[in-house]
Amino acid sequence: MSRSAHPAGPRHADVLPEGHYSAPPADLNRLDPKVWSRTVGRDERGRLTVGGLSVAELAEEFGTPAYFLDEDDFRTRCRAWADAFGSDADVFYAGKAFLSRAVVRWLKEEGLNLDVCSGGELSTALSAGMPAERIAFHGNNKSEDEIRRAVEAGVGRIVLDSFQEIVRVAHIAQSLGKRQRVQIRVTVGVEAHTHEFIATAHEDQKFGIALAGGQAAEAVRRALRLDGLELIGIHSHIGSQIFDMAGFEVSARRVVQLLAEVRDEHGIELPEIDLGGGLGIAYTSEDDPREPHHIAKALNEIVTRECEAAGLRTPRISVEPGRAIVGPTAFTLYEVGTVKPLEGLRTYVSVDGGMSDNIRTALYDAEYSVALVSRTSDAEPMLSRVVGKHCESGDIVVRDAFLPADIAPGDLIAVPATGAYCRSMASNYNHALRPPVVAVRDGEARVIVRRETEEDLLRLDVG
Ligand code: LLP
């Protein structure tokens, strides 16, 4: 396993052996609905269409590389999460996956709440009209300025991440004459990624306050003592790209145990628990994510059962899916620039973007799918590696992919499931211009985040 592999990558703990790649798919032209957004198909000329528009038209109008976001799919997923959890629970979309003002408006219209983790995300949310009480503010090192802005705006909750922050938020709220609703983020000693989880993970990470050693109980004690704070609950987030609900089960059990301890010590039942985000999506046809109603049912059952066992009223549950909402709704469209066959190895297909628009492959060994989308082809499958145009050999977009052997410069290829953590983690490496995000719906396409220009770069460079 690569030393750079990250928990969010599927190769964690050698789930897939080094050098693994799937056998070629039976039909290279087929667009697996598991990995493509809901309105994607092919037109009579074999070109991929999304929201009724073909990629040839889209590339012509918006250029490449570009992210195309299927607005219908995004809204449908929001509604599926909201419906699955119902009125007794709250769904907070995790803005770190991808945030823009259009997205904030869609969330607002579809009845979702929003988790932000920086001043920048907070101002995006507020400027697009998200009611402050529907915002949760996260982060392990929020600045005093960020805390003040959040309290002044009246955010629905601040998730406290350290002992210092308990005092800091209380002090700022009090100085503003307010009582801030807060949750305490605890680390439950569970670490979950993709297909496995570890129930006794070390607390060796920067987030939250450990349940172990009575730390979290002490945090509750301190928060309850401070006038500037209204402690409404406990928060736990156990990882990312998770398929197995067992990690949530252990986490919920440990959080409920803390609620019982709080009741025994202070005589109060904290009314809320937040189980975080982290639900997995399909990046390749081999991934099998769960539907929101399965997740909601499983989480509700776990919490209800644990609370009954502890003799507690069931608290209001909230969750924070980011990737599971936006991830599957977008693809990145690239134009092929060069095709370099390496005898006996594979063919390198270079595109006009790369690690600046998708760092996940380089950073986490993440796996993606890819398809030729400007036409269909009957050529043989060819083992390929889709690479970018950056000055770095690790600049890989799709490590192992089968593309038709007649792929050629000028063809358009698309990588699905790039809605989450691609634009939001994009960089200007090599002075690349970050691609636009174009929302497509009912035959109309609209730029929601425009492409950067060289003037944008030069404006920051004050000479
Ligand atoms: N809530 C909290 C407190 C989080 O820290 C996160 C993600 C989420 C919710 C949303 O998790 P999601 O449902 O999107 O998995 N850059 C990495 C993922 C980092 C996730 C950080 N926290 C990646 O590209 O895989």
From TrEMBL:
Binding site for substrate: R323, R360, Y364, E392, Y421
Pfam family name, one: Orn_Arg_deC_N
Region (Disordered), start-end ranges: 1-26
Domain Orn/DAP/Arg decarboxylase 2 N-terminal: 72-327
Keyword Plastid: no
Pathway(s) annotated for this protein in UniProt: Amino-acid biosynthesis; L-lysine biosynthesis via DAP pathway; L-lysine from DL-2,6-diaminopimelate: step 1/1
GO function terms (MF aspect): diaminopimelate decarboxylase activity
Keyword Amino-acid biosynthesis among UniProt keywords: yes
Binding residues annotated for pyridoxal 5'-phosphate, in chain numbering: G278, E320, P321, G322, R323, Y421
Residues that bear N6-(pyridoxal phosphate)lysine: K96
Domain Orn/DAP/Arg decarboxylase 2 C-terminal intervals: 332-419
Record's keyword terms, sorted: Amino-acid biosynthesis, Decarboxylase, Lyase, Lysine biosynthesis, Pyridoxal phosphate
Domain of life of the organism encoding this protein: Bacteria
SUPFAM superfamilies, per the entry: Alanine racemase C-terminal domain-like, PLP-binding barrel
Record EC number: 4.1.1.20
CDD domains associated with the record: PLPDE_III_DapDC (cd06828)
Known catalytic reactions: meso-2,6-diaminopimelate + H(+) = L-lysine + CO2
Function of the protein: Specifically catalyzes the decarboxylation of meso-diaminopimelate (meso-DAP) to L-lysine.
Subunit structure: Homodimer.
Name of the featured protein: Diaminopimelate decarboxylase
Native source organism of the sequence: Streptomyces roseicoloratus
